[in-house]
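Design job #97: recover the sequence.
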């Protein structure tokens, strides 16, 4: 009986130790920068999108290197359907920071409606951010397409 109780306690403690640690305020700010950048993209707001990126931002997408103008062209200018809608869900894997740089990895799941057709796209992404005038901005974003349906 003592062995069973010991095993249950050991299992419970090990499960708790593996739980995700609480994020610092700075880690939350970093994640929010990425979320808000994607909200601007979803709203087709090129001005808002630029607000969350450095002037020399680089997006590594589909084997290509895009700058902010390329992203705006491919993701905003082309998507002018009246019913366009994009909803993003993030599953953050890791968020690391030092004083002026941060990097995070996450799964991004986007549901996109365009021309009465709905699709779901899943990516694994890594983002590098830099701090500019006390605000985090996206400097590099590398995206790996996982699944499109």
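Job complete. Output follows.
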């Amino acid at each position: 009986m003592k062995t069973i109780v010991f095993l249950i306690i050991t299992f419970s403690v090990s499960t708790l130790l593996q739980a995700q640690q609480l994020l610092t305020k700075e880690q939350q700010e970093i994640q929010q920068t990425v979320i808000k950048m994607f909200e601007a993209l979803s709203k087709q707001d090129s001005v808002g999108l630029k607000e969350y990126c450095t002037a020399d931002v680089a997006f590594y997408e589909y084997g290509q290197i895009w700058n902010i103008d390329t992203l705006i062209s491919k993701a905003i200018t082309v998507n002018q359907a009246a019913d366009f809608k994009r909803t993003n869900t993030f599953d953050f894997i890791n968020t690391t920071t030092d004083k002026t740089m941060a990097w995070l990895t996450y799964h991004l799941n986007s549901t996109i409606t365009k021309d009465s057709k709905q699709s779901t796209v899943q990516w694994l992404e890594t983002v590098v951010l830099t701090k500019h005038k006390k605000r985090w901005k996206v400097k590099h974003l590398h995206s790996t397409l996982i699944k499109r349906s």
